[in-house]
């Protein structure tokens, strides 16, 4: 194709718009699928938490390792355009395969609503995931570099703006998909049995991926396509290897030193290649400290979401569930990228400060480290409100008197009297080894409590007559997960009954005993009590008080004088009081850090790379993200801190140290313009060529310039 003048729009090449739309659809497709994965693993494939999480993290890490592969294919074999098209096809197939794997009726031959051979579904979904990882990872470094290729020399400003718009598209896609995909999941569908519609929820991302591919191909005629230049990577590897070998061979004093270790390759390799490799190695060296930023950044999905589960989601009139806090990051990005780009940077420039790429990245790291300081402060506030649970060989005991006379219970060091159905004192903590408990009541002998208490747990002692008691192990030795509320029922009725609450059933709660806890989200719940003992004219419908986040209650069901049931609530764990709104400062700091760090990193990686290795450096940048993910897995696995805030402070300190090291490294980095360097080589090559073919040409040109 001849160089047609690229069509332009607002001073940007028109082809850019196709690339941005393509990226938006691709990210929507990827994040939409990813938002479902964990639930799909647990609920459809029936895996436990640990297996699901491990496979999920492996998949995410794989998506950041495959870019190396895509970059190699693009820079040395197919070129960026063909690589994007062919890998997008692989990607779309992967999305379709995983959608098919979630069709229940695929192997459900007896129509009972569960697949007959789950292994078919597992195999299909794993094949799908591998294809998706190949696709999404492979095109990642190519799409951003291909976008950068569309700009001419002298369009640096537009190109920088493009990387911002590109980043905006990534986040807009992920934001919309995290909102829309869960809505699709709750639809029901199926041929023979109706259930959660995974095929629809996986099918929409697959369709969007196809749209993304079509949009990209439509723009084909407008793109500026840079030809790949042979197998560049093996050349680079061979050249580096030769330089090192040659350097070792000439290590004695009598050989003159050379300016740069790569100059030792000059016997065998041309200077252009050596200078290109120098550009890449200098940037790669700068990348060594960067994974630490991503290690902090990626914790907003794990640690910060867990932190939100110990907070209250009631902000004004709206209620937020803990896992919805993550969308704050994407929302803030969509707001902050334009502000930083159009307001903050111009203001800094007006003040006469030269805010270079590497300075921006240093500031980004500093902001992220401050975000973790903020998270630690919030954590300290939360810790003040958390209940104390038994540790080591301690046990905690609480007494509920569900009889109709007063009871006196003596513990080591204290004796308490409990009126009928009185609100008990808080849990009392004792050492399991010297625990002796006696129950007495006026005019009756003392009954010792003989029970093997399990250390590290809370127990409830139910008493209803001087010699009748029951010890129940609570089973809750932490705040309920995901900000939900634990509810259990104690039966002070004569016979066993069933309770139905918000669709959950407590089966056969036997007399003078407690049920297990079941968990419910925030709000007011109603429950019904069913027992053959209850006469028809009794009211069976009851309502709970407003449930907040992370509380636990025991409802004691007693019989009133007219024989009808009555419910009385006792608080076991108080609801969370620290508002989730307090997480906004840390999200804000981290997002500002991300805007100045990540967008700049994409743009820096592009601008400092030689023309034949643009995708490779983008892949190097993505590799820092993968390594960051791995750091989190190692740190989280290795050290369990007794205090969560201490872990946050440790991470903040680590990033600060890395930030200082990076700042020092950046001081010694000199910016280059690869295009200029290459143009210089082209000019020299041309002159050499002319000189060889016509020795007088050189003199000729000299004499002309002198006239």
UniProtKB/TrEMBL annotation:
Pfam families documented for this protein: PTR2 (PF00854)
UniProt main location, coarse: membrane
Domain of life: Eukaryota
One Gene Ontology term of the molecular function aspect: dipeptide transmembrane transporter activity
Membrane topology field: Multi-pass membrane protein
Subcellular location: Apical cell membrane; Membrane
Catalytic reaction(s) noted: an L-amino acid tripeptide(out) + H(+)(out) = an L-amino acid tripeptide(in) + H(+)(in); L-alanyl-L-lysine(out) + H(+)(out) = L-alanyl-L-lysine(in) + H(+)(in); a dipeptide(out) + H(+)(out) = a dipeptide(in) + H(+)(in); carnosine(out) + H(+)(out) = carnosine(in) + H(+)(in)
Quaternary structure and interacting proteins, as annotated: Interacts (via extracellular domain region) with trypsin.
Described function: Electrogenic proton-coupled amino-acid transporter that transports oligopeptides of 2 to 4 amino acids with a preference for dipeptides. Transports neutral and monovalently charged peptides with a proton to peptide stoichiometry of 1:1 or 2:1. Primarily responsible for the absorption of dietary di- and tripeptides from the small intestinal lumen. Mediates transepithelial transport of muramyl and N-formylated bacterial dipeptides contributing to recognition of pathogenic bacteria by the mucosal immune system.
Similarity section: Belongs to the major facilitator superfamily. Proton-dependent oligopeptide transporter (POT/PTR) (TC 2.A.17) family.
The protein's name in its UniProt record: Solute carrier family 15 member 1
Lineage: Eukaryota, Metazoa, Chordata, Craniata, Vertebrata
Gene, per the UniProt record: SLC15A1
